[in-house]
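Case study B.
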Amino acid sequence: MTELLARFLAHGVPHAFPALVGQPSIGVLTAHSARVFAGKVASDERFVWPDADGTERGLALVPLFPRSAKTAKRNPALYDLLTIVDALRLGGARERKVAEELLRERLAGPEA
Amino acid sequence: MTAGTSVRGAAALAPLLANRDRVAIAARAIEPLLNRVVFTGRQVVPWLETSPVSSGARPTFAADAVVRVLSTGALDRLAADLRRAGLTHAARTAMSDRWVVNESVTLDFTYVSGDESDPGAVWLEYASLLTTAVNVGTADQPLSARITGAPALVALDWAAYRASGESALDSGELEDIVALVATRAEIVREIGAAPPELRTFVAGETRRFLESGSAPHVIRSAVPDARRLPAITARVMERLRSIASPG
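Model:
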């Protein structure tokens, strides 16, 4: 089941829910700008979910569901997963490879 | 939020430098040897982009920490000079030597043998011969180094793509080719003026790519502006058609 979910998120979601990028905004970092990609991908271009309480600035990326930005504080594990899925929706081949590795790592559960 | 705090193993991470900075640091570290080597690979692309069409703020990856350097001289002869320059030898394979500049920059020196019986070596040889000199330093402190020119870099990427066996939609090399075609208008003329062997190889691979029908998708993935501006996709497609059908 986990394998099917990983495949759907990696190869289905980017086509079913392609990334929509808008104007610069304050918000919460997402896609390969998010903390989970630190040390793996770096870019001058940053992406955020627009949020009035956000502390970062970047190009607005429409989140998969409206309250995604609030998960950063309330549920960090879910936040990380949502940012990984955004990288799959937004990124090129190399970003998607890194994101898929992170996704599978997270879905596999905590390290022993 | 602190970058990297939740990433497993983040404590061991070195700073992730932009490719331009990596090459600059690498070149400065081996300055006395610069007339004997050629920088190549994805890291040199920023010096080849001449058009304002954006391929996005090109991300850098942990895998990019290794800067690729080609040498037609024997690696053993380079070794003494590299040690003298303060680099540390890290590993050796049949055709390449890995040297460390610092925690963020590693160099892979590949020996270009010029052995015509090795079909895989021919594109490396072109990459070491068809070069262009660029300033990898700053305006205040210029530093001239040779990098692989656009036609040979495209050939190298096509060869890597074919060797990888990846699908067109999953290939970083293919995205690099498309991004370079999008950001360098003169590439059609340059490939047209390249040696016949290289021109024929690139034309054939480009033709196969166009016939696969995946080109528009790869363009939109490699050139973010193309998602908003369909005219960019049309322009890149036109360049690819010209490369595929050299006059």
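The beta strands of chain B are 37-40, 60-61, 66-71, 88-92, 96-102, 105-111, 131-135, 144-148. The remaining cases will be described in the next quarterly update.
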